[in-house]
């Protein structure tokens, strides 16, 4: 399972980079997620379904990332904590790079903790826990 989960996030990194260039198929992005999921951050807990609404929300999210100058998203590390034979917690370290126009680029390292399930060949994300993204972006002068 560990190799498959790492492959999932390497694929997700490529899709994210394509989305930053506005060249991604949202069906491919959505295929990384289970039919339902839960998300938690300091803003609260939400649940959702892998449907057209998810694709629309993700498209808007990518548009916002482009608008604020996100030019790259780099996968630094994936650390797996197995739960059982079908589930794990993936601690994923990312680096986001922001274009600040005439100023030097800003790089921000962060982690997101994903709940992943693998019932067949391909693992799927069914949840994640993240920090306060808006506060970090504000602290670095991005927003």
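^ Assign residues to that structure.
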């Amino acid at each position: 399972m560990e190799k498959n989960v790492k492959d999932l996030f390497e694929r997700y990194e490529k899709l994210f980079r394509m989305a930053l260039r506005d060249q991604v198929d949202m069906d491919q992005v959505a295929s990384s997620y289970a039919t339902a999921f839960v998300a938690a951050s300091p803003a609260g807990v939400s649940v959702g379904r892998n449907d057209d609404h998810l694709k629309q929300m993700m498209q808007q999210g990518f548009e916002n990332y482009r608008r604020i100058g996100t030019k790259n998203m780099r996968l630094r590390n994936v650390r797996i904590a197995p739960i059982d034979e079908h589930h794990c917690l993936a601690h994923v370290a990312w680096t986001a790079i922001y274009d600040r126009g005439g100023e030097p680029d800003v790089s921000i390292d962060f982690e997101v903790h994903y709940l992943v399930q693998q019932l067949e060949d391909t693992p799927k994300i069914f949840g994640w826990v993240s920090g306060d993204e808006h506060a970090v972006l504000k602290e670095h002068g991005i927003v």
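The mean pLDDT is 95.
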